[in-house]
Amino acid sequence: DTGVSQDPRHKITKRGQNVTFRCDPISEHNRLYWYRQTLGQGPEFLTYFQNEAQLEKSRLLSDRFSAERPKGSFSTLEIQRTEQGDSAMYLCASSSRRNDGTPRVLTFGAGSRLTVL
Amino acid sequence: KNQVEQSPQSLIILEGKNCTLQCNYTVSPFSNLRWYKQDTGRGPVSLTIMTFSENTKSNGRYTATLDADTKQSSLHITASQLSDSASYICVARLGRGNKLTFGTGTQLKVEL
Fold first, then answer.
1. Average of pLDDT values for B49-74?
2. With an 8 Å Cβ cutoff, is B42 touching chain A?
């Protein structure tokens, strides 16, 4: 297992089009997170899953955004009717419970960079 | 409002020198404080995690400190290398839920 994989790495689209990003987490990790990062800013939380259940969504996740993790493994993040303000890096991370009780460590993927023209 | 503020915004140092990055947080209730390193165009990589009961933690040439009373943390980098050039992000976790609050990062550049 080589870590968290995201696809595509770069996506350029025209305003109004739909885009979908995929994330393959580390196989034994039960939690999967989506973050958005704009230039010069830290990542902002969008949503997270525990197995296939979506447990929390940020108010940043407007009704144009939808995330799924149908089988508790890979996840997709879809953005409908893209706007220029959606241009950002979309980061996926995964984590698992640690047997020693120490805090979960999030392992991030390299991100999917979206440019909306 | 839960916030994490970092200073300086950017820093340039010579290879071999030490540096210290600062982080102030207002996250409450507080659970733990993390430092991440993010190379340009890549995802963040975890360096250290400290709970409120810990006041220092090391990872190789990186040493993080935490003062939960003053809500301040620092990341000290010893004997810097060119590969240390990156953004260093301070992250605070709330004591409830799973939300991490990220700072905007300190952009470090190590030069010859």
1. 93
2. yes
